[in-house]
Amino acid sequence: GSCGIWGLFAAALFDWGKGTYHFHGWNGFTCMKEDDGTCRTWIGGRAFGVNFAMALCIITWVGFLSTLAFWGLKVSGLLRVEPEKEKKGADESSHSP
């Protein structure tokens, strides 16, 4: 959840190499290169924006699949315990000897 999102943001925020204006991204210890072979500079904001968009996509995907799963459980009647077990308490009725 939030630790994964922080990982996305931290990867973009703290990926400095030679000064804070070089961004490594997927290139490991070398900077991202332009077509002429020079290092791309000042793209950290763009990288953060891409990671932010990826976090939104992940949140949307997980929310959609969780909604489908819980809706299916609710419709099938498997989401809640029976009312008499609920009144008595699930621990006492299901987990006690």
Q: State the end-to-end CA separation.
A: 36 Å
Radius of gyration: 24 Å
Task: Describe the strand arrangement of the main beta sheet, using strand numbers.
Answer: 1-2
Shape: elongated
**SSE order:** HEEHHH
Sheet with the most strands? Answer: 2 strands, antiparallel
Strand percentage lies at: 5-15%
Q: Give me the secondary-structure category.
A: mainly alpha
Q: Write down how many β-strands occur, each being a DSSP E stretch of 2 or more residues.
A: 2
Give me the number of helical elements: 4
Mean pLDDT, to the nearest integer, reads 85
Helix content: 55-70%
Which residues sit in consecutive blocks of at least 5 with pLDDT less than 50?
A: none
Q: Mind sketching the topology for me?
A:
Layout lengths: L1 H12 L2 E2 L1 E5 L20 H33 L6 H6 L1 H5 L3
Antiparallel strand pairs: 1-2
Helix pairs in contact: 1-2
Give a verbal description of the structure.
The chain has 4 helices and 2 strands; from the N terminus they run αββααα. The chain has helices spanning 2-13, 44-76, 83-88, 90-94; strands at 16-17, 19-23. It has a two-stranded antiparallel sheet with strand order 1-2. α1 runs antiparallel to α2 (44-76). The longest helix is centred in the middle third of the chain and has 33 residues, at 44-76. The radius of gyration is 24 Å and the shape is elongated. The mean pLDDT is 85.
